[in-house]
Amino acid sequence: MDTQRAHEISSSPAMVDVLYNGERIYIEHVDQGNGMATIHPLDDPGDKYSVTVDSLTEKPSR
What we know:
The protein is mainly beta. Helices cover 15% and strands 40% of the residues. It has 1 helix and 5 strands, in the order αβββββ. The protein has one helix at residues 3-11; strands at 18-20, 23-31, 36-41, 49-52, 56-58. Strand 1 (18-20) and strand 2 form a beta hairpin. The longest helix is centred in the first third of the chain and has 9 residues, at 3-11. The chain is globular. The model has no long low-confidence stretch (mean pLDDT 95).
């Protein structure tokens, strides 16, 4: 995923399925300058970590 799309998803009120290492996650914040995103698993909002945006995958809608 590119930083622009990650930022669009994080700013959108609609829920978009995004995966990190096969796990559904929520994008909290995107730092477009360094290509990093703060994320957490959907089932554990307290488990926040930073990852590279290019390691995120948007799950295609059906």
